[in-house]
Each structure stands twice: as structure tokens, then as C-alpha cells.
Write a structure and sequence with these properties.
CDP-diacylglycerol-serine O-phosphatidyltransferase activity; transmembrane; lipid metabolism
Length: 231
Amino acid sequence: MKFIKMIPNMLTLGNLYCGFLSIGFAAHGQYNNAAILIIIGMMLDSMDGRAARMLKADSTLGKELDSLADVVTFGVAPSFLVYYTYFYQFGSIGLLVSGLFPLFGAYRLARFNIGTSKQSMHYFIGVPITAAGGILAILTLFGHWVPSIITTVVFTALCFLMVSRIRIPSLKDIPLPKYGTIVTIFLGCMLFVLYKGTYGSYPYLIYIATPLYIAYLAYRFKKNQNNKTSD
């Protein structure tokens, strides 16, 4: 029973480890691997909170751990990825600018953590760091077709949007299978294009993560159907 209660935290730690691995791959010039790991981190991040509620394993420890993992996977890792792919050409200034992204992201997370739970169920104030980091990862994946100036503008905009007071609609009210399946299909199509001839090393991470994510979505869908039937 204790092991089951630990599952949400294990998913969160998996998210954190993806961020660490992403930084390592980026440092070795394997930018596609680094970006894919951030996306896998997004998949795990979308699962841990729901798993905690499903297993009735919500805890203060889990919430704090989730924030720490998000800073690494969606703050530090994307900033290193952008530095190694775009900002490296500006030397030390590029490194300093890249470091602003996790600073804005950490501030946004801290502000979110002290916000009211009622407010967070309907909308986010500012762009969530998970979405911001994921956008940078996707831009890097399609870096051959995206001009550097666009990535620079998006990077700068996301920094300020994370700490802005703009209300972003929350997807928490949308049933998981609806958008979860769309995300999975999108990832499958995108990875097919990438792996067709460019992705060579360590492909098994996504081959393991995607089926597990699909299985999780199928389980949630079946549970929701059973709940509707019982009602």
C-alpha cells in the first residue's frame, strides 16, 4: 500500500531526472534527445498530480517536489538547450540571457504555490513554466525550419508572460482523454518525422514512455466510463 502511495512522487522524480538527462544531452550536442526528454517530462508532469488525486495520495511533500522538478525540467533544461543551439554565438552575454528563463519560471512557480486553490482550478495567472519550457523544446526540435530571430523573440516573450498577470485558461476542467489523446497523437506524428532519418542514439526512452502514457490514458478513460455507468 505504501508503494502505491509513492507512485505520484516517483512520476515527479522521473520528471526531474528527465530534466537532468536533457541538460547532459544538450551539453554533448544531442539536441533532439534533450528536447525529447523535456517533452517526456511534460508527459510525466501531466500524470503525477492526477495520479495523486486518483490514489488519494496528495501531500505537501509532493507539491513541493513537483515545483522543484518543474524548475529543473522546464526552466533550467530548456534554457541550456536554447543556449547551446542559439545563444552560444553571443558568448557570455548569451549565457547570462539564457539564465533569465529559469529565474522568471521559478518566480512564477513560487507565486502559483501561494495562490488560492480555487483560482488555480479555473485559470493560471501567467503562462505556466511547463508550457513555456515545452514550447522552447518544440522550437528546438524544428530548429532547422525556425529562424533564430523567432526563437529569440519567443524566448523573451515567454520570460515576461510567465510573470505577467494575464489569465490563461486551465485545462484541468477538460477530461484527460480528450486532450491527452491529442497530445499523444501529436507526439507520435512529430517523432515519426524526427526519427525517420535523424534520430539514432538512445531511442528507447520515447518508445517506453509513449506506450506507458497511452496505457495511462486508456485506464483513465475506462475508469471515467465505469463511473458514468455506475451513476
